[in-house]
Design goal:
alpha/beta; Carbamate kinase; eight-stranded mixed beta sheet; two-stranded antiparallel ribbon; about 40% helix; about 25% strand
């Protein structure tokens, strides 16, 4: 009997959050190990469907780097990186569209639908709702400490998001699943970082939350402890002091940019933990790091 009482207590703990976020929009960036482990994939699809059924409007933005690399190998192309950043030439862009806009997107849509959700896949090229321009050369630091400018090819900086198509889908009860591909003024496809795309979409939709699923459990302090809540000023200080470093810096920068542009809170969570999305949103303590503005 105690097991059932404990389950009821969990529902009671979730109730205030369900009430608070009913008819609000969450944008979830789906990536990392959660996209390749079959059990985690099904768990994520079930969690997203549950959010929609309790009245939370969900938009999923996905990555797919490992899947792109696998397809490049299959077609005899070499994945090319500079300073940890993918170089997207014309041939690679064709593969990116095939994988992100095709295989990966369709897989996520199918998983959500199999769990009772109503999902629709699209990319920023649909209705040209994500418009971008080609990114200029980026500064890459060499192992010897020298710097050089590198052209990343068909990689874009987002200029404008027209959220109308997403709002129409959400209003009709669908969960939009978005591949991070944009279009430039001449109609060419551009590869967009998935975290960045999710942040821009969250801002355009006036989202209550942006959730970044990663393969780490959040931001850690100088002593190695998980930071459960962090405001913008504290985050900037931790970056300046080198506490936040490496691959966490661009994720935190993405979060801060989203908060600056109107997203209420951003959560960085570990997608390797089953139900991390629900645990972060519907429990008092959460399981990751929450970033927010001052106050």
């Amino acid at each position: 009997m105690q097991e059932f009482v404990d389950k009821a207590a969990v529902l009671h703990e979730a109730l205030p959050y369900i009430r608070r976020f009913h008819k609000r929009t969450f944008v979830v960036k789906y990536g990392g190990h959660a996209m390749v482990d079959e059990a985690l994939k099904r768990s994520f699809a079930r969690d997203v469907s549950l959010l929609r059924y309790v009245g939370i409007q969900v938009v999923v933005v996905h990555g797919g780097g490992p899947q792109i690399n696998q397809m490049l190998d299959k077609v005899g192309l070499r994945a090319h990186f500079e300073g940890g950043l993918r170089v997207t030439d014309d041939a690679t862009m064709d593969v990116v569209e095939m994988v992100l806009g095709g295989t990966v997107n369709l897989d996520i849509v199918g998983l959500i639908c199999a769990q009772g959700g109503r999902a629709v896949g699209l990319s920023g090229k649909d209705d040209h709702f994500i418009q971008a321009r080609r990114q200029g050369p980026v500064d890459v630091r060499e192992p010897d400490g020298s710097h050089r400018d590198v052209d990343l090819g068909r990689v874009g900086d987002i200029q404008h998001v027209d959220a109308t198509i997403l709002q129409n889908l959400i209003g009709s009860g669908f969960i939009p699943v978005v591949a991070p591909i944009a279009v430039d003024d001449e109609g060419y496809s551009l590869n967009i970082n998935a975290d960045t795309a999710a942040g821009h979409l969250a801002a355009a939709l006036g989202a209550a939350k942006l959730v970044l699923m990663t393969d780490v459990d959040g931001v850690r302090d100088a002593a190695g402890g998980l930071v459960s809540s962090l405001d913008a000023a504290e985050a900037e200080r931790m970056i300046a002091e080198g506490v936040i470093r490496g691959g966490m810096i661009p994720k935190v920068r993405c979060a801060l940019d989203a908060v600056e542009h109107g997203v209420e809170k951003v959560h960085i969570i570990d997608g390797r933990t089953r139900h991390a999305l629900l645990l972060e949103i519907f429990t008092d303590h959460g399981v990751g790091t929450e970033l927010h503005g001052a106050g």
